[in-house]
Specification:
By secondary structure, the chain is α+β, with helices and mostly antiparallel strands. It has two domains: 2-125, no CATH class; 141-360, Alpha-Beta Complex (paralog of FGE (formylglycine-generating enzyme)), CATH 3.90.1580.10. Helices cover 20% and strands 13% of the residues. It has helices at 2-8, 16-22, 30-37, 40-43, 48-52, 56-60, 77-84, 201-208, 227-240, 251-259; strands spanning 141-143, 157-160, 166-170, 173-177, 185-189, 192-195, 246-247, 295-301, 322-325, 342-344, 353-354, 358-360. A six-stranded antiparallel beta sheet has the order 1-2-3-6-12-7. It has a four-stranded mixed beta sheet with strand order 10-9-8-11. A hairpin with a 7-residue loop joins strand 4 (173-177) and strand 5. It starts with a helix and ends in a 6-residue tail after the last strand. 31% of the residues are buried.
């Protein structure tokens, strides 16, 4: 998504006509309109309503709590394509799996960049993104390697001082929530650090002095901890580390992290017990074990979508069920989907519930 935005953003300056043609949909779905505007859909007169229906209730609701009339996913997209392409793909003559080669809005090859146009400035004319905080380091962190984030200047991988807890930096971005619970909606996410894997029993014991886990092992994820227990650990960590700021991830951050790397969710645990952290391969953001092993507590209250961090669901003292994500060693594969939300009482200690740490970076200054 971020790559496509960078490629298409220059077209926005010349897209006034396209936005008028797209109508009210362009009020929120800017990127989708830009994708559509560089495809043959526009010249063929195929606009948003052609595929998604009038969607009157959706656009009349400011919170977008009413889904569009038609919201095809995966193989269902082919049914819309056949309305025009009755003979199948013009190139391959295949009548199915259009979305495997083409973007759903633009019908572009996702492996090729959009062709340059007269409105696209030459590469030399584009402004470079300079790091506003060169070589910045948050208190309580040691950089692990020389790689830096260009936007913040922060180390991409760090360890927590004195505790050897590895964390990775996730950049600014957005995530589409709702594939497992409607309505589908896009949530922006600010850059933050996230634990490379679940907190281990050795790391928990170093801070809390005890090990509550049912399956003992220093390198195994800590489990049988409640949401309140996790908050107590966060408080102890913030007292110990200069600058504090450690917390549980919100459920939007958790799903953003889970979806942000290479696809693929496999169940490779052997037997019904947790595995050592890092047992599952990491993807391009360097997180491990986000599917299976142990459920991970999020900071969020269990409230209906759309997700809104400002509506009180992130209040630490608010009563109610809290959200867990990721599935566990004791669950079937359908519960390992990154969109699946599990709701639980914050005082329950179950042998398949653990946690992963997060830390904001918004307080970093020049």
């Amino acid at each position: 998504m971020a790559r496509l935005i960078l490629l298409l953003a220059p077209l926005a300056l010349a897209a006034q006509t396209e936005f008028r043609q797209a109508g009210v949909c362009s009020r929120c779905h800017v990127v989708s309109v830009l994708e559509w505007s560089v495809s043959k859909h526009r010249s063929a007169g195929t606009d948003c309503r052609r595929c998604h229906g009038p969607s009157e209730a959706h656009v009349a609701n400011e919170r977008n709590e009413v889904p569009p009339d038609r919201l095809p996913r995966a193989a269902a997209i082919t049914g819309l394509c056949r309305d025009c392409h009755t003979a199948g793909c013009p190139k391959t003559q295949q009548p199915a799996a259009c979305q495997s080669c083409h973007h759903v809005h633009a019908l572009l090859d996702p492996n090729k960049a959009p062709a340059a146009s007269a409105t696209t400035p030459a590469p030399a004319a584009r402004k470079s993104r300079r790091a506003p905080f060169p070589d910045a380091v948050l208190p309580g962190f040691h950089p692990a390697g020389a790689a830096r984030d260009r936007q913040t200047g922060l180390a991409r991988e760090v360890t927590v001082t004195g505790l050897a807890i590895p964390m990775v930096l996730l950049p600014d971005g957005e995530v589409d929530l709702g594939s497992g619970a409607t309505p589908v909606h896009t949530v922006p996410v600010k850059a933050f650090y996230l634990g490379k894997h679940e907190l281990t029993q050795a790391q928990w014991q170093a801070l809390m002095g005890t090990n509550p886990s049912a399956y003992q092992g220093d390198t195994l994820p800590v489990e049988r901890v409640s949401w309140h227990d996790a908050q107590a650990l966060v408080a102890a960590l913030n007292q110990r580390i200069p600058g504090g700021g450690f917390r549980l991830p919100t459920e939007a951050e958790w799903e953003y992290a889970a979806r942000g790397g290479a696809p693929g969710w496999s169940r490779d645990n052997s037997g019904f017990r947790p595995q050592p952290v890092g047992a599952k391969p990491a993807n391009r953001w360097g997180r491990h074990d986000m599917a299976g092993n142990v459920w991970e507590w999020c900071s969020s209250l269990a409230r209906d979508y759309p997700y809104d961090a400002a509506d009180g669901r992130e209040a630490p003292a608010a009563p109610g069920l809290r959200v867990l994500r990721g599935g566990s060693f004791a669950d079937s594969t359908d519960l390992l989907d990154p969109a699946f939300r599990h709701l639980e009482r914050p005082d329950r200690r179950l042998r398949w519930n653990g946690l992963r740490l997060a830390r904001s970076v918004s307080t970093v200054g020049p």
